Amino acid sequence: MTTSISPAQAWQRLLEGNARFVSGEAQHPNQSASRRSDLMNTQNPFAVILGCSDSRLAAEIIFDLGLGDAFVVRTAGHVLDHAVLGSLEYSVSVLNVPLIVVLGHDNCGAVTATKDAVETGEMPQRFIRDLVERITPSVLASLRDGRTEINDMVVDHARLTAERLLESSPVIAAAVHDSATAVVGVAYRLAEGRAQLVTDSVLL
């Protein structure tokens, strides 16, 4: 099982796994029958990843992880809602995970839909509209600062989602204040497979 590690050590472990994935030398760790048996009654993930639901963004694959390594929450555009916040608070307060990664990616369909809605004034229907409304502040922030490309907006959205997470959850904010965990924004590049930190952080 994973022993307690610092936020910086957790990020380094993710970086190393991503480097293996990028180079085509993935090790596929912790995927054995014995690992499955060890985890039957307990779990001790070293990171929680709030990622986009996009099929090209499977966190366990791009970071070369296995069973029990990461607590993963996925929504289109990695939007925050009560269920997501509850899941993340559980990971921090019960599982004591030292690192929360907000993971966005190039050519995100949810961010693209939001950009289109902002520019045309035409909102999508029903629950897709809810997604767009939650991403709109990030797109507006990008446009305000003169960034009009989708992938620039993706970076802004990952960074701002990390900030909103701290604003929305006193539980997570307290854990960060106590240095028990850290929250970072990360952007994934589809073509090269690399995950890059996009927030200022003590992890650097």
From TrEMBL:
Superkingdom as given in the UniProt entry: Bacteria
GO molecular function: carbonate dehydratase activity
Enzyme Commission identifier(s): 4.2.1.1
Gene3D superfamilies assigned: Carbonic anhydrase
SUPFAM superfamilies in the cross-refs: beta-carbonic anhydrase, cab
Matches recorded under InterPro entries: Carbonic_anhydrase, Carbonic_anhydrase_CS, Carbonic_anhydrase_sf
Entry function: Catalyzes the reversible hydration of carbon dioxide to form bicarbonate.
Name recorded for this polypeptide: carbonic anhydrase
